[in-house]
Design brief:
Layout (H helix, E strand, L loop, with lengths): L2 H7 L4 E6 L7 H7 L7 E4 L5 H4 L9 H13 L2 E8 L6 H4 L5 H18 L6 E6 L12 H6 L2 H13 L4 E6 L7 H15 L6 E4 L2 E3 L7 H9 L4 E12 L4 H20 L3 E6 L9 H4 L3 E2 L12 H10 L2
Parallel strand pairs: 1-2, 1-9, 2-3, 3-4, 4-5, 5-6, 6-8, 7-8, 8-9
Antiparallel strand pairs: 8-10
Helix pairs in contact: 6-8, 10-11, 11-13
Length: 317
């Protein structure tokens, strides 16, 4: 038993979780994190991001990122690298840099090849580009797009491919799990990159949901992506609710976890599901959405919630 054990038994590559360095001194927490039967894959929630790895130009720091990579290795867990190029948690030397196109190209290439290269051979997949689109499907006008147009995506993917030819290269975003303008934009981007021969292996659907408000057509959306020749994964699943939780909202959350996981179970090209930390104790949600929380399958006290059984049912669908 255990989520990863069940996921593997139905032919998935992993069931995983995000984690963060500050949590690793919590022994009751790590006792669950380290259990390969629950989690066959981990993602660093912060420590591989640009502000953490290259806080000033050419000065790379990998202490925290290495700690997560080493933990995955020790536990025999797959590692998802997160991420190379993102508008957020981007140091100001990049975001305010005023670099011309040639210089920013070189900055992206150096960053992606150094970070991806550091973990060459030990990463299952990399979120090379994170959150390129606005919710209306237009491109996010960050420093990368404003300086390089859409070409920054292929610049980053090519640099990542050269640095670790065996890592699966992903573009990762939220609000692309159902049918939306943003989903269409991502589908069109995949088509266009594939036509141009740009290396791209997967699309990560983050899966930050609200209890009782799942988008429809989850499975159909996964199938639309895999039909274009990429694999898919839910990379940051959590399902938040208004606080305080009630028996009814916890029961609805169980159903919603089951629905999302079932979609992945039913699509052969959906390789796995990663929850964005497994316990409410360390969820990002209450810090961002005031009055909301309890988004994870384990509660504040590291006890399994009904949501856990929802995941099991979804894997066994
Ligand atoms: O590192 C500083 C620390 O020095 C300081 O004392 C502390 C005080 O607030 O802040 C620490 O930084 C925080 C960082 O997490 C590390 O804990 C930031 O304030 C906080 O904003 C940051 O939040 C992260 C968030 O990304 C930022 O965008 C979350 O932990 C992380 O879970 C979240 O993850 C993102 C994915 O990368 C992309 N998709 C959405 C997802 C949820 O927002």
């Amino acid at each position: 038993t255990g989520l990863n054990a069940i996921a593997k038994s139905i032919g998935k590559t992993y069931f995983g979780t995000a984690t963060d360095n500050s949590e690793l001194s919590d022994a009751p927490y790590t006792a669950i994190l380290d259990n390969i039967n629950e989690f066959g894959q981990i993602t660093p929630a912060n420590s591989m991001k640009w502000d953490a790895t290259e806080p000033s130009r050419g000065q790379f720091t990998f202490t925290n990122a290495d700690a997560i990579a080493n933990l995955a290795k020790k536990n025999g867990q797959l590692l998802r690298g997160h991420n190379c190029v993102w508008y957020s948690q981007l140091p100001s030397w990049v975001s305010n840099g005023g670099f011309n196109a040639a210089t920013l190209t070189s900055i992206i290439q150096t960053h992606c090849s150094t970070v991806v290269g550091r973990y060459k051979g030990s990463v299952y997949s990399w979120d090379v580009v994170n959150e390129p689109f606005n919710d209306d499907g237009t491109w996010r006008t960050d420093v990368f797009y404003n300086t390089l147009g859409t070409s920054y995506v292929s610049i980053a993917l090519q640099a990542a491919r050269a640095a670790d030819p065996n890592a699966k290269l992903y573009i990762n975003d939220y609000n692309i799990e159902g049918q939306s303008a943003k989903t269409t934009a991502m589908l069109n981007l995949v088509k266009s990159l594939k036509q141009q021969g740009v290396p791209l292996d997967g699309i990560g659907l983050q899966g930050h949901f609200i209890v009782g408000e799942l988008p429809g057509n989850l499975q159909q959306t996964l199938e639309q992506f895999t039909a274009l020749g990429v694999e898919v994964a839910y990379t940051e699943l959590d399902i938040r609710m208004s606080l305080p939780a009630t028996q009814a909202s916890l029961a609805q959350q169980q159903k919603d976890y089951q629905t999302v996981v079932t979609a992945c179970t039913n699509v052969p090209g959906c390789v796995g599901v990663t929850i964005w930390d497994f316990t409410d104790k360390y969820s990002w949600v209450p810090n961002t959405f005031s009055g909301q929380g309890e988004a994870c399958p384990w509660d504040q006290n590291l006890q399994k919630k009904p949501a856990y059984q929802g995941i099991v049912s979804g894997l066994e669908a």
